[in-house]
Amino acid sequence: LKGRRKPRPLRERLERVPFKGRPGVVFLLFALFFVAHSCKQEQSKVSSEEQARTDSLALHVAVMPVVDCLPLYYARSMGMFREAKVDVRLHEYQSFADCDTALENNVCHVAYTDLFQLRVHNICDSSHVLTTFDGQLCLMSARGKRIRTTKNLKERMVALNRHGTADYWSDQIVSEAGFEPTDIYRPQINDIRLRTTMLCDELVDAAILPEPYATWAELKGHRRITNTKALGLPTACLAMQKDLTRDEHRRNQVEALMKVYKAARQAMRDNVCADSLRSILMHQYTLPGEVADSLTRRIIDTPDLFDTHTGKIKGSDIDIVNKWWTKRHSYN
């Protein structure tokens, strides 16, 4: 044994074997790779199918980063939908037009919109409106434009979204100021963030903004002219698809959604989590830090700022919407 050579390692011995001498090893490696890849694809297919089924059973809700929707964002952040055992998916959009499109194209079952937008789609009635809001819209003027009252708006540009509450309110402003409908230029800027940016950059003379964008503009030095406090009409609503509640599963989901929304409103009134609220405003509403801080303090001090819920739609509200729509349609 003393003169016997030490055996070489297996790896070294394999490396010295010609390629043609080990086809079985190569075949085995390819077979193992093929089996592993096939299993991975099968698992991915099953996972995708399961995910698609879960998504189809969830209740999809179109929302906007505005004060009216804040309780829904808060409920998601605090896990209130999970606690209520209801699968709600919030889809975030920057305009009423996008929310309406999501509702019409079956992307979402429920959408944040307004009564005038619903009239466009002929579903402005109590069977489709879950609840209404009176979150104030503000007419803001750019700080360098010397606009202090609505009387100064003649031949000025006021950015707004068309065929909505802002459009209706702008007609009221024109009438009260004694102007002709064409005396004010009203460019259609549906995206609320873009509208705010255009005002702040003084690309328009004025703009109609919801909260928190009115506060954002105000903190940048722009002026509040007036608001919709005396409008006497809900400024927005939550609406659902036609015949959605005929399905028992969807009906239960909608009922659970409204219960969670109510609970979130109450939780924000009683003991709001300031850190969660600020995080929502900064990371989901994507507001600057100083705006998020200011709004967080205001909401804690004045709960009515976010609690804009007004309840069911009224017949008188529908009459106002239909009358204005008929007049505007015939005018155009």
Q: What is the average of the pLDDT values?
A: 85
Q: Give me the count of strands.
A: 10
Order of helices and strands: HHEHHEHEHEEEHHEHEEHHHEH
Shape: globular
**Sheet with most strands: strand arrangement:** 2-1-3-9-4-10
Helix and strand content put the structural class at alpha/beta
How many helices? 13
Radius of gyration: 29 Å
Helix fraction? 40-55%
Largest sheet: 6 strands, mixed
Strand content: 5-15%
In whole angstroms, the N-to-C terminal distance is: 108 Å
- Low-confidence regions: none
What does this molecule look like?
By secondary structure, this protein is of the alpha/beta class. Helix content is 48%, strand content 13%. Helix 3 (70-77) crosses helix 10 (248-271), helix 8 runs parallel beside helix 9 and helix 11 packs antiparallel against helix 12 (289-301). It is globular.
Question: What is this structure's SSE topology?
Answer:
Blueprint: H1 10-15, H2 23-57, E1 59-63, H3 70-77, H4 80-83, E2 88-92, H5 96-104, E3 110-113, H6 115-120, E4 129-133, E5 137-141, E6 158-159, H7 165-176, H8 192-200, E7 206-210, H9 213-219, E8 223-227, E9 236-240, H10 248-271, H11 274-284, H12 289-301, E10 309-311, H13 315-331
Parallel strand pairs: 1-2, 1-3, 6-7
Antiparallel strand pairs: 3-9, 4-9, 4-10, 5-7, 5-8
Helix pairs in contact: 3-10, 8-9, 11-12
